[in-house]
Specification:
- With 385 residues, the chain is an alpha/beta fold.
- The protein has 2 domains: 145 residues, Aspartate Aminotransferase, domain 1, CATH 3.90.1150.10; 222 residues, Aspartate Aminotransferase, domain 2 (3-Layer(aba) Sandwich).
- The protein is 37% helix and 18% strand.
- It is built from 13 helices and 17 strands.
- A 7-stranded mixed sheet has the order 4-12-11-10-7-5-6, sandwiched between helices.
- β8 and β9 form a beta hairpin.
């Protein structure tokens, strides 16, 4: 089927919520994908940080194949080992509390919001301007972006967004605040790290008023910033975190992970999800976690990310470079990031995306080789020449 025919079918039968790029991807391996005509592309987006160990990582593929031949679904009315083992691993590798599984980052944030309101009934939720937490109603209410919120008003009451400053957060949190929800690095907002002093202020304010500090690590988690979780580099430990995207190695799974204080807050019947933590996706996530936890891999992510940011910053036409590990954003002089991304696909067979008029975002595989990284920077340089 030609790309043109596929586009016609999409326009006729799929609700048009996605501004798709003009490319049909049919196969992937490592950092590379191929289109319907056999052309090869270097993928620096990973399905928006989903295939973070590269496409079709052998350990994940084998885990899926084995589990699919045994049991794919049994519902949460019964015990199944993979999901429970995954919860144990996630807790031990992060906050030490308990885990609720779901299917996406937005769902993980919805669970986190219910957790906070269950702990402090009717409490307000404070979020930060520029953040993105999902498109379901609770998550959207915490996403202070007018273009995303306005068409769907009225939103869920009890949400307040403040500037990403220490003073703004400390002034906003009070005894009636249920939670502060914040991304350690704002991904959809343009790869903007939140300053440690802001996170520290949020921690102090939450401690003072008995509020929950929740980190949205949907994009920053699972090794993306060079530690398993981004909070590990900040010195600030949240009461709960949310994760998804890379957690399943390519399959859909999300999770809310609590610390000990909130581990028993949600009770039977308070929340649920039909497919959540099923054996197939849990086996994939266990395999992905096993690879990602390797200290050598995480150290390499930090070193390679630092080198790539420095090399991109040295290119003509780049105004600023931000990020941590292999979560990288750079601003183009004069803007036109969306057009730049389209040209990069067509001319250099390089997959990236734009998070705004001037910002290009890179989320390459954590397994990117030195040669692939050098090739990526060279292709970006040719686009800017």
């Amino acid at each position: 089927m030609s790309l043109l025919h596929l586009q016609e079918l999409d326009a006729a039968h799929v609700i048009g919520t996605y501004a798709r790029l003009p490319l049909e991807i049919v196969r992937g391996e490592g950092a590379r994908v191929w289109d319907d005509e056999g052309r090869e592309y270097l993928d620096l987006l990973c399905g928006i940080s989903v295939t973070s160990l590269g496409h079709c990582h052998p350990a994940i593929v084998e885990a899926i194949r084995e589990q699919a031949g045994m049991l794919m679904h049994a519902s949460n009315l019964f015990y199944t080992e993979p999901g429970i083992r995954l919860a144990e691993r996630l807790s031990a590798g992060s906050l030490g509390g308990k885990v609720f599984f779901c299917n996406s980052g937005a769902e993980a944030n919805e669970a986190a919001l219910k957790l906070a309101r269950r702990e402090k009934c009717g409490g307000e939720v404070v979020s930060v301007v520029g953040g993105f937490h999902g498109r379901t109603f609770g998550a959207l209410s915490a996403t202070a972006q007018e273009s995303k919120q306005a068409p769907f008003a009225p939103l869920v009451p009890g949400f307040r967004a403040v500037a990403p400053t220490a003073d703004a957060i400390e002034n906003a949190v009070h005894d009636g605040t249920a939670a502060v929800l914040i991304e350690p690095i704002q991904g959809e907002g343009g790869v903007h790290p939140i300053a440690n002093e802001v996170l520290e202020a949020a921690r102090r304010a939450c401690d003072r008023h008995g509020s929950a500090l929740i980190f949205d690590e949907v994009q920053t988690g699972m090794g993306r910033t060079g530690t398993l979780w981004a909070y590990e580099q900040t010195g600030v430990v949240p009461d709960a975190l949310t994760t998804a995207k890379a957690l399943g190695g390519g399959l859909p799974i999300g999770a809310l992970v609590t610390g000990p204080r909130l581990a028993e807050t949600l009770q039977a019947g308070d929340h649920g999800s039909t497919f959540a933590g099923g054996p197939l996706v849990a086996r994939a996530a266990l395999a992905a976690l096993e690879v990602t936890e390797d200290p050598a891999l995480l150290a390499r992510v930090r070193a390679l990310g630092e080198r790539m940011r420095a090399e991109i910053a040295a290119l003509d036409g780049v105004d600023a470079v931000r990020g941590r590990g292999l979560m990288i954003g750079f601003d183009l002089h004069g803007g036109e990031a969306p057009a730049f991304v389209l040209r990069a696909i067509a001319q250099e067979r390089l997959i990236m995306n734009a998070t705004g008029p001037q910002t290009v975002r890179l989320l390459p595989p954590l397994t990117l080789t030195d040669d692939e990284a050098a090739d990526a920077v060279a292709r970006i340089g040719r686009m800017l020449a």
